[in-house]
């Protein structure tokens, strides 16, 4: 049940902190805003530092196996394209669906279906050619013969510097609404959460997930693509594999986000229109296929596998960036540029 508790905390924090990793990457090429990138690095750094202590003590175990580099690149590009269509990553779609966003709910449905599909026995021969391109060492530190503690130290120092530099920039004025609540209720359900605070809390939850997951017999950290596929199998095939640590984690994310949305008065059904609904469903389908090929979603690869310096996690990031930019170029960037030229 620890998976349920950690999932609840994760869903609550992500919803209240508006922690959208997809939006953070999109802000880089649209607005040259690196705030969410730094926030992601904060969550990764906390895990990296903690794993240096937990792994030698036997409290956490790192995944092993080869790095399927071509499958990761192709999967990352597809996942990034899906993010642009859906307007969020898969984890973001789950917590936004809990708020009542119909588009996000459709993205979740698409993600669940394609996560199951890409893992189906009949599909494996089709993706096998992508899996043939691999390296036997899965960690960057092993390939480059770098001590893990040195890599973790460099990452933490870089993150601290970037965070310090960002916090020392002149802050833009932000309009504040009059507080309607006081005390803990105000802090939990009304106050604006700084992305760095949310990231630090998520980093702690993610680090504890390594310990909790291993205690249940599952080495690794946070991840939702596998249990999403198992959820499909539970509903349509009657298989009970969903009811493990990762499945309870997924349930907790939805429940935590639901409470956060209800407490902050953001729980309301909203339909985005037919075109956006179709794009959201397509985005979810692409993200499910992409995460299946790449061995993890935005949460599992970008936020977790990067913490132990896996090639899979760090290669996934530029791949999703490319996929996201490509779709955004034709749906956002190019139309904005043409509008500027026409109005000029």
TrEMBL record:
List locations, semicolon-separated.
Answer: Cell inner membrane
Q: Where are the transmembrane segments?
A: 38-55, 67-87, 93-118, 139-164, 193-212, 242-261, 281-301, 313-332
Q: Which key words tag this protein in UniProt?
A: Cell inner membrane, Cell membrane, Membrane, Transmembrane, Transmembrane helix, Transport
Q: Where does the UniProt entry say this protein principally localizes?
A: membrane
The record's listing under InterPro entries reads: Sulf_transp_TsuA/YedE
**Keyword check for Cell wall biogenesis/degradation:** no
**Which species is this UniProt entry from?**
Yokenella regensburgei
Topology within the bilayer: Multi-pass membrane protein
Name the record gives this protein: YeeE/YedE family protein
Q: Which family does it belong to?
A: Belongs to the TsuA/YedE (TC 9.B.102) family.
């Amino acid at each position: 049940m620890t998976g349920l508790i950690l999932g609840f905390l994760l869903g609550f924090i992500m919803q209240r902190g508006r922690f959208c990793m997809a939006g953070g990457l999109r802000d880089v090429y649209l607005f040259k805003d690196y705030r969410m990138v730094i926030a992601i690095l904060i969550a990764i750094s906390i895990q990296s530092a903690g794993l240096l202590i937990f792994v030698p003590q036997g409290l956490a175990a790192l995944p092993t196996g080869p790095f399927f580099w071509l499958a990761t690149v192709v999967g990352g590009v597809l996942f990034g394209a899906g993010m642009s269509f859906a307007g969020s990553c898969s984890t973001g779609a789950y917590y936004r669906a809990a708020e009542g966003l119909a588009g996000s709910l459709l993205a979740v449905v698409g993600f669940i279906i394609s996560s199951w599909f890409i893992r189906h026995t009949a599909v494996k021969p089709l993706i096998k050619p992508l899996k043939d391109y691999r390296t036997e060492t899965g960690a960057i530190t092993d390939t480059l013969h770098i001590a893990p503690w040195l890599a973790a130290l460099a990452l933490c120092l870089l993150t601290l510097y970037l965070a310090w530099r960002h916090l020392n920039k002149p802050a833009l004025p932000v309009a504040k609404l009059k507080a309607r609540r006081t005390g803990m209720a105000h802090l939990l359900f009304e106050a604006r959460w700084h992305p760095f605070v949310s990231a630090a809390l998520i980093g702690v939850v993610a680090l504890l997930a390594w310990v909790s997951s291993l205690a249940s017999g599952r080495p690794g950290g946070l991840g939702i693509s596998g249990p999403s596929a198992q959820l499909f199998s539970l509903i349509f095939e009657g298989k009970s594999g969903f009811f493990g640590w990762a499945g309870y984690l997924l349930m907790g994310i939805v429940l935590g986000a639901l409470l956060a949305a209800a407490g902050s008065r953001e729980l309301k059904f909203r339909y985005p229109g037919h075109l956006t609904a179709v794009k959201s469903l397509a985005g979810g389908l692409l993200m499910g296929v992409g995460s299946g090929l790449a061995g993890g979603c935005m949460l599992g690869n970008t936020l977790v596998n990067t913490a132990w310096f896996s090639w899979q996690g760090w290669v996934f990031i530029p791949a999703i960036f490319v996929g996201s930019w490509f779709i955004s170029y034709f749906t956002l960037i190019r139309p904005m540029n043409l509008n500027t030229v026409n109005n000029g």
